[in-house]
Amino acid sequence: MLTLIVPGLIWTRQALADLTCDLPLPAFTTLLGQGRLSRRPARDTTAMLAESTGLAAPLPAAALRWFGLRDHPGPDDHCDWLCLDPVRLNFHERSLIVDDPQHLRLNNEEAAALAAALAPTLAALGELEVLAPGHWNLRLSAGAPAFQALPDAAGRSAAPLPPDAAYAPWRQALNEAQMILHVHPVNQARQAAGQPVVNSLWPWGGGRLPGLAARTSTHDAIWSNDPVARGIARLLQIDGAALPAGYAGSAASAPLAVVDSLEPSASTGDAIVWRDELTRFEAEWLAPALDALRRGRLDGLRLIAPGDLAAAELLVSRRDLWKFWRKPRSLAELVAS
To answer: Strand 221-223 vs strand 95-98: parallel, antiparallel, or unpaired?
Structure first.
């Protein structure tokens, strides 16, 4: 069974109808017509990933990616962690939009210099650690309140932190961090070179690494470019690898792939790019998977589409393909009327 989690696939029913009415998607429409489609309440990607891997939601993203990116995890696996990622907040029509973190493209030297300047300001909250240029963690000195996940915030308006007292030290630390970032030489050099600057930090994904007791998983591999997913694979003691360009068969019998190529254009509403990515997803993942099902090289396909408005799940077995009387269905069927 190949499982695909595909964020960014769900729009409103009318938008899906309009966006895909002229796209040739024979594999997708065939799978929709012959498989079993379940429409589900809105769920985000991390919730679907947790459900698919048997972990509790919300996922402790900071702890999991620390576990996934560290070559030799040590005694800190039992610490409380928080993601504290560098971001760019971009003014647009009187709103602050959280730019896609991938657009920053910090290098190791830039990340280290920025983190060194910010560490004293954050010391009362925890110890700052750069796992990768775009992935920073805070080893917490004490507990932390809940924050909006960065993947959910990217491309959308940044909401202010709640006025509760629990957020007061975080508001102060983030305000001071923004002032430091504003005048930092790294940002001045990036601005002079026409590159996006880091003007804030985004806290999210707090928690402690789940217990490392023996776990059973329905998957024997996880393919994803997300370090959180890599941490999950390591926790479950299964193979973890970068997302391949498409499905070309696998030694794994039950791989889980997080195909996130549709998500950036969906979050910004860029219909042209989204259509191109959907066509690529059809050609690189669904058409080969359908062919493998027909040839008996794959016994089933499970497609999970998380979304803010709704979610959907499609299950297709080899036996479903024998139901020749079932007609193809449009992608608008993913969403209820």
So the answer is: unpaired
